[in-house]
Amino acid sequence: MSILLTIAVIALIFIVIFQIAKASEYVTVLRGEGKGLRQSNKINGALMIAFLVLGLIGVWYCNDIYFGKTLLAHDAASVEGARVDTMMWYTIAVTGFVFIITQVILFFFAYKYQQNDEGKVYYFAHDNRLEFIWTIIPAIVLTFLVVIGLRNWFLFTGEPPKEAMVIEITGKQFGWIYRYPGKDAAFGKKYFKNIDPATNSLGIIWEDKLSHDDVITEQTMYLVKGKPVKLVIGSRDVIHDVGLTHFRMKMDAVPGIPTTMWFTPKYTTKEMKEITNNPNFVYEISCDQMCGNGHYSMKGIIDVVEQEEFDMWMAKQKPQYLVNFPDKDPSISPVADSTKPVIGMATAGKKEKTNM
Amino acid sequence: MSHEVETHAAGVVTTHEEHGHHEHHEHHDTFITKYVFSQDHKMIAKQFLITGMFWAVLGGLMSVLFRLQLGYPDSTFPWLETILGKWAKGGHITPEAYYALVTTHGTVLVFFVLTAGLSGTFANFLIPLQVGARDMASPFLNMLSYWFFFIASIVMLSSLFVETGPFSGGWTAYPPLSALGDASPGSKTGMDLWIISMALFVVSSLLGGLNYIATILNMRTKGMSMTRLPLTIWALFFTAVLGVLSFPVLLSGFILLIFDRNFGTSFYLSDIFVNGVGALPNEGGSAILFQHLFWFLGHPEVYIILLPAMGMVSEILSVNSRKPIFGYIAMIGSLFAIAILAFLVWAHHMFVTGLNPLLGSIFVLLTLLIAVPSAIKVFNWITTLWRGNIRFTPGMLFAIGFVSLFISGGLTGIWLGNSALDIHLHDTYFVIAHFHIVMGVASMFGMFAGIYHWYPKMYGRFMNNTLGYMHFWITIAGAYLIFWPMHYEGLAGMPRRYYDFSIWESFKQFVELNRFISVVSMIVFGAQILFLINFFYSIFKGRKLTSQNPWGSNTLEWTTPVRPGHGNWPGEIPEVHRWAYDYGKDGKEFIQQTTPVGDDESNH
After folding, report:
1. Which strand (E) or helix (H) includes residue A64?
2. Does the first or last residue of chain A, that is N or C, have fewer Cβ atoms within 10 Å of its Cβ?
3. Contact check, Cβ <8 Å, A3/B79
4. Nearest CA of chain B to the CA of A135: how many Å?
């Protein structure tokens, strides 16, 4: 019933608008086309200025209420991210200036040079000097932006510092798997045909000894404040993307082609809670590449902690190899291991999936 | 308004053998040959336009539906279930339906509305009329071009009704998601239909494009040298060249995708384990290869959409400022520069795919280079207004709106083209705001400008001005209200293509803003309905044209009869003596292209 009513009201509004428009058209014709058009010309000219003024107020107002909700309201959470922010401010300054100037001139000219009674115009077909000026100036300004941009680009895409820790992150529909290389600081080889969601989510080749101390977790990735981290990114099925918006970083996860990204966390999660004034703050990994119907729920968490806390956490982790083959674990007595089936690890870490 | 124009047809004595073979045989046109399988470029243009409108309504409606989800994620709308059935169980759009709507909205708007509906309409309508030809080089291929588009439309439409749903992997259709039905139900039958439809669409584009190029190069009337062409024609020419060179690459990408989907090849697939299915046998393919092939069209496609709008806006701004377009040669030069650069920037869509950094830096350079010809165009448009005598016809309003939107959306391109910034902003709402303003809404404005401006030529009647003014002001205000705040969501890192943000601590702070945007988008959609009513009502009841040349325009189309038949000019095709922009010269309001240059005339 309410639906019908809504439709009826909308239809009525359309009919009223339409009738008014039709009537005004008749009036224009009756008054003589020239006169009527002259009047609507004046109205539209005035609206040009009104739109300009209201628009600029709107731009200011929008900034006023939403700036605080953007990431620019507080520091970037990584050393490299701070460079992104600086670059962004330069870009805002340049484009903002051009935006205001050109919009003001455009709408002001439209208003100022609306049809006048003399009908005089200035026949002005070209001017090489003017055109030269507005070719050269944008080119110079852009060069400046390109230089800043490329310096950052080569830094971000270049080699990370030597002391960087390395973590592997693998996307799958719809979650993330993390692997730490363990004491030997090297990952064991893997092959996708070895993947078994229950026991070997990454398809690790256990024959490779380097894999024996690799730690595999899901849900939360732990990073160390002030320590550069290099992420080795992969995907198990479709293309995903590791989006780290607080660190200002992002990189696709492509099946078959590993990619990398590095950055240096600047604040612990605890510190960020204070900086953002949000007690619930967490660093989130958002999937930024359409990956299927659960795309919007493909979330990971990063916990940035101090070195000691990280070491303590790491000490508690058991390499996946020992989880899968408890008989190889010197710390577990042979009696206990039969009670610990291999699936334990895989299901414990699994996060809730949306109902597809 | 201006009165009878001196058509200079009488002064033309030269015979045009090459154009003379078209006879006027309207008397034995049947309904079928006149309105359905027509070979008259003007009728084909209208077919493109009205089919484009159909898709615009459907695509727009889809955006209203998914905006409903984004604006009101917690509400239920029982009527949705009535319309969509299982896709809105309990009155709540499901994720599958949401992604299908987003994908179809994108595909349809980019290809069916802004490519076919915009460039298909106006290339068909304006090229023969403005270069002085009786029809296209091949009217038959031209007709086929429309009917391939029509079949593509039918196939795309049918994909909405298959059981597993239409394709839902985003309009860019990246594999492996688009290649694996097991990874997403939308990639099953829906994707097959999507590819077939797109392949047919490519054929349609190629047939059209080749025809446009041939017509512009070979069928200009006497005196119509390339440098006397109106800028609309130059823009449509570069558009056609872009399409002819890049659409085949897209098709090749699709063919490889079809092979991967159906015949077990591994062009794009490697190292894949699908939940519930297991490891796939494919090895050695590159998912990134598709992105290169896709964006090799995908980026020129942006200009395929934008250039016709630029051309029409140049023409309309000049006519209604009663002033020549400023920097005609620079305008052609910048169109040319944009067309060339369009082919050299595709990988700026791929900065975060693990692209070679050196290659990335070259694409940064070339991408930001596009800002230079774009800036030239903007400054030239603004200078065209300067000291003019502006008539705010609805077409003119939309042309001015186009310039405003092109500035706003173009400037954010400088952010996104700079790879280090793009890393941060890539695939956020900032991108949505950027391309909707600069490509979507701006081109739509170009299209509206064109429709209002050439409507009298199409139907011999005017559209209602008052409705046109309302349409313009609601739409431009709405467009900014919708897309301007989205920049802020992007600056908060909010990713695009998310069905629901409530589980994200980082992105859930925009609930009211999302609702606001959704409400405005519904109002703007309503304003477009107003436009449609105006359009169709005016075909039958609009104010009739009293003169051949209602806008006092210089170009050739206004030398034809009010309702030109097939063949356009009843007698000889007029000869051209000057460029198209002699407005306000030597104290004359306008001098048509058919007027010979007088002895006492000043040089420009």
Report:
1. helix A33-66
2. N
3. yes
4. 6
User: In this complex, do B177 and A292 lie within 8 Å of one another by their Cβ atoms?
Assistant: yes
Report the complex ipTM.
0.91
Q: What is the pLDDT of residue B34?
A: 83
| Cα–Cα distance for residue pair B255/B265, rounded to 1 Å | 11
Residues 112 through 131 of chain A touching chain B, CB cutoff 8 Å: 113-116, 119-127, 130-131
Does the residue B13 lie in any domain? Answer: no
Tell me, yes or no, if B99 comes closer than 8 A to chain A by beta carbon: yes
CA pair distance B192, A227, nearest whole angstrom: 48
Range of the domain at B77: 34-271+283-573
Percentage of the residues of chain B whose pLDDT score is greater than 70: 95
Q: Does the CB of A354 have a partner CB in chain B at under 8 Å?
A: yes
Q: What is the 3-state secondary structure (H, E, C) of B408-465?
A: HHHHHHHHHHCHHHHHHHCCEHHHHHHHHHHHHHHHHHHHHHHHHHHHHHHHCECCCH
B181 occurs within a structural domain: yes
The DSSP code for A114 is B
The structure tokens 């989800």 sit at: B69
Q: Are residues A263 and A172 in the same domain?
A: yes
Instruction: Using a cut of 0.95, tell me whether the model's pTM lies above it.
Output: no
Residues 6+ apart with CB under 8 A from A227: A163, A164, A165, A264, A265, A307
Contact list, B284 vs chain A (CB under 8 Å): 256
Q: Are A286 and B506 in contact (CB under 8 A)?
A: yes
Neighbouring C-alpha atoms within 13 Å toward the C-beta of B512:
4
Q: Residue B417: which CATH number?
A: 1.20.210.10
Residues of chain A with pLDDT under 70: 1, 33, 332-356
Asked if the structure places residue B196 within a domain, the reply is yes
| Contact assignment for A252 to B501 by CB distance below 8 Å | no
CA B488 to chain A, closest CA, distance in angstroms equals 6
DSSP A183-252: TTT-PPPB-GGG-BTTTBTT-B-TTSGGGGG-EEEESEEEEETT--EEEEEEESSS-EEEEEGGGTEEEE
